[in-house]
């Protein structure tokens, strides 16, 4: 991983106000991998009291995007082209962790897998799996 | 549409605390169709100042889910099985509107299309398109 | 549509040997739209006697790809980045028609919607819906 | 794995005429996992001489479907609800192997991951990754 890649990820994460609104935190940055964690909150639920799909998608998409960013050129920014997410089980518990991992990185496009786990009384439950396509954008 | 379907949608929407956290509002409920609107907010952005993909996904997923609910049996609840979203353009402007429409409804599964539009100085821009699979769940 | 776009689509389609193996035929080429038809064949079925998901996906993906190609620069070729398909109903009948339509075209990426219909005793049944992301590639 | 599950997979595979048309072969059946292989053929290519996305999707979808079937009740049949596939690299070489693995199985729905690899001069190249949702159907 480029020596400054972690710094770029941390700066970009800090500018995502939505992550702060959710209460999300960057908990791991490695080469092609980023983890984001989120404490459960009543403000973030759907009608059954589980974390809303938009919350799970949001943190998992960010984990994928920043994982992709670690593989991009230093002057690139990352944008999400598309993603698909399967919600495997209700997102309930104390905490959600989303893990983004690069599956294939190219000059323009990067494909990542993201998996979200709910931590409930010390057990990890697999609650969602995502595949995301990201694009490197160079600002003029 | 079942006479009470709109009521069920409104009750379920009111229980999605995440919609209130986003500032989202139910603006249309019809047979197989639901629209949700969201004023732009600095609290909801990604690193470039556009609405975060999790925000756009969250309201579009809810629009799809409630559109599906209008076609389900009165005692059913709706859960999202999976969705895929393409982000077509930056979600910037004053307001986002997500429109969920039923493509095919079955006894167990319903497939919806969701499209999100940003309203910017009176113009509508198509910012995202989603396909979602929803399941009817009957609580014991 | 660029005057030569239809010609480029027809040449590229003719080079897709898999389309000939399936018995597929190009039935419409317009600006941002391409339709491909396929007579039902016992050679192409899954275990219940319906057209296999790979067949439905294959022709719908080609319809999307060629629809995208009509919007690309004359020297570009098109490759599929990814697609998602929902199979809405069994693909049975005499004939399948897949319609690819451009939803948004950019310099690098194009997003298309594809819908497949089975023609059965004069009635059209919607059997699948796809969203595809295509990329323009310029050969050196 | 249910003692007869492998037998059910082999019988169902044998009824998929499209697999024979492609020249595909069942090469592994385990609990929640199925591999299908395909020799490269000029009849199956797209315009650049690579295996068509419909071919790669078709065998990967079948691998996912049969992997799901190994986890279902003995009287159930499996149908694909939807899948999403990312094409990571050109499918060229001597042989394609698609590996379907169950990610989560429920009473009604099963989610699988499928990965396709091209074998080229002894090296395996990852050419596609799929997430599929399958449904168990009980025939009357």
SSE topology string of chain A: HHEEHEEEE
Radius of gyration of chain A: 14 Å
- Spatial gap, N to C terminus of chain A: 24 Å
Structural class of chain A comes to: alpha+beta
The biggest beta sheet of chain A is recorded as: 6 strands, antiparallel
Q: Which overall shape of chain A is indicated by the principal axes computed on the Cα atoms?
A: globular
Helix content range of chain A: 10-25%
Oligomeric organization of the protein chains: homotetramer
Low confidence ranges of chain A? none
SS field, number of helical segments of chain A: 3
**Most residues in contact: chain pair:** A-B, 37 and 37 residues
**Using DSSP, what is the number of strands of chain A?**
6
% residues in beta strands of chain A? over 45%
Strand order of the largest sheet of chain A: 1-2-4-5-6-3
Average pLDDT of chain A works out at: 96
Keyword list:
homotetramer; 140 residues; alpha+beta; 6-stranded antiparallel beta sheet; 3 helices; 46% strand; globular
Summarize the structure.
Four copies of one chain form a homotetramer. Chain A is α+β, with helices and mostly antiparallel strands and 140 residues long.
Question: Please, could you describe this protein's structure?
Answer:
The structure is a homotetramer of 140-residue chains. Chain A has 3 helices and 6 strands. The first copy, chain A, has 140 residues and is α+β, with helices and mostly antiparallel strands. In chain A, strand 5 and strand 6 form a beta hairpin. The two termini of chain A are 24 Å apart. The model of chain A has no long low-confidence stretch (mean pLDDT 96). The interface between A and B is large, with 37 and 37 residues. Strand 3 of chain C pairs antiparallel with strand 3 of chain D.
């Amino acid at each position: 991983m480029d020596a400054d890649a972690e710094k770029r990820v941390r700066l970009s994460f800090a500018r995502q106000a939505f992550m702060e609104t959710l209460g999300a935190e960057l908990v791991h940055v490695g080469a092609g991998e980023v983890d984001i964690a989120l404490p459960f909150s009543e403000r973030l639920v759907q009608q059954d009291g589980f974390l809303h799909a938009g919350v799970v998608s949001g943190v998992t998409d960010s984990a994928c995007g920043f994982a992709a960013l670690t593989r991009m050129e230093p002057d690139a920014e990352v944008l999400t082209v598309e993603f698909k997410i399967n919600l495997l089980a209700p997102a309930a518990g104390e905490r959600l962790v989303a893990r983004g991992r690069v599956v294939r990185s190219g000059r323009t496009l990067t494909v990542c897998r993201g998996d979200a786990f709910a931590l409930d009384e010390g057990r990890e439950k697999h609650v969602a799996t995502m595949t995301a396509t990201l694009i490197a954008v160079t600002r003029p």
